[in-house]
Amino acid sequence: MSAPAPSLRGSVPLLAATLAYAVLTVAYVVANSSTPQPSASGDDLLRYYVHDHGTAIDLGVFLLVAAAVLMVPIAAFLARLVRREQSAAGAATAFAGGLLATAALASSAALAWTLGRLPEQSPAALARALADLSFLAGGLGYAVSFALLAAGTCLAVRGNRLLPRACATTGLAIAAAGFAATLMLLVFGFSYLLPVVRFGGTAWLVWAAIALVRSRA
């Protein structure tokens, strides 16, 4: 009965961190539900960020930073569990993806915070540039980083029963969507993959964490 204990000490905190991350992600979406679309003009962005929604922006930035911080232990716990399957490459890929995802979310939050504190007479082009950078960091930057996290995890546990086959296949599909999202730099229509990775990836992360707890127990 003592053998599973070390594994559970890794998988249960992973589940707790993942659930907290999912809650923060949903709260962030609710807090920023009226954020202008990427196609909005610089004047509209200035009006929204500088004049109308200061409190909502600050709350959204706080939630995004909190979610970014949680990605570090999530990646660390995943890498630890994957490494036990004697897959150092998978563990390194998963951990690197988690760290990059943290940097992407934190950068997006910092840019949004800066945008919300522009002087009222700032040029619209500056607001547009900051909004684009925040979108790229939190959208594309996060998608590619999460793709590394998901791919490293799923490929490392391939061939064993740590994750159900459906869960592993879903994780690889989300990773593929994250890598394919880079095509938005050529054709913006591929940006529809960003919410697939952000929200589908969050749901997959919770699914994978629950599966890892059950397999270790």
TrEMBL record:
<feature type="transmembrane region" description="Helical">
    <location>
        <begin position="12"/>
        <end position="31"/>
    </location>
</feature>
<keyword id="KW-0472">Membrane</keyword>
<protein>
    <recommendedName>
        <fullName>DUF4386 domain-containing protein</fullName>
    </recommendedName>
</protein>
<keyword id="KW-0812">Transmembrane</keyword>
<feature type="transmembrane region" description="Helical">
    <location>
        <begin position="135"/>
        <end position="157"/>
    </location>
</feature>
<keyword id="KW-1133">Transmembrane helix</keyword>
<feature type="transmembrane region" description="Helical">
    <location>
        <begin position="196"/>
        <end position="213"/>
    </location>
</feature>
<feature type="transmembrane region" description="Helical">
    <location>
        <begin position="91"/>
        <end position="115"/>
    </location>
</feature>
<feature type="transmembrane region" description="Helical">
    <location>
        <begin position="169"/>
        <end position="190"/>
    </location>
</feature>
<feature type="transmembrane region" description="Helical">
    <location>
        <begin position="59"/>
        <end position="79"/>
    </location>
</feature>
